[in-house]
Write the structure tokens for this entry.
Amino acid sequence: MPNETRRGVLGLLGAGLVMAATPARALDTAEASALVQKSLDEVYAVINSGKAPAQMYKDFEAIFARYADVDIIARSALGPAARQAKGPEYAAYRQAFQGYIGRKYGKRFHEFIGSKIEVTGARPVKSFYAVTSIARLKGRSPMEVEWHVSDKSGQSRYFNIIIEGVNMLASERAEISAMLARRKGDIPALAQDLQKAG
């Protein structure tokens, strides 16, 4: 699959990641599957809303801030440097990362009008559930997508998505790592770059 297609699907699924959160409760396979389906329904409502792109980006960031475990995702993307980041500089990075994700994934929405993702099953894997689905995009071969769902934070949330072997968290970590390397490990400078990126 071309890299642009992978990035596009990851963008759409990243929207699913931030759209889904429910009150704390013990998960099972049915609930994990329902959570994925609910998030997909909401994602497609945004895609087909007819809003201007800039408004969609703002809406996406607001949803991300409210429903995703922003801290876990941001720390994972930053990698080992997150352990050395001081409070204020990490907070600035986290806020910039949140906006970066909103813009980056928001820009992929238009590619998925008329597409469909169907949930096909779920299974427990260690401390989380893996929910499988099939993405059917116009003019492209079906793709298998795996969603990782957990309620360890007190709410049921997606914390990773894998599509055809492409790990969303790993992809973000590689991009953020490269940006940090260009800034010679300077996290405040990285945060400034993230405010313009996406």
In short: The radius of gyration is 16 Å. The first strand starts at residue 21 and ends at 22.
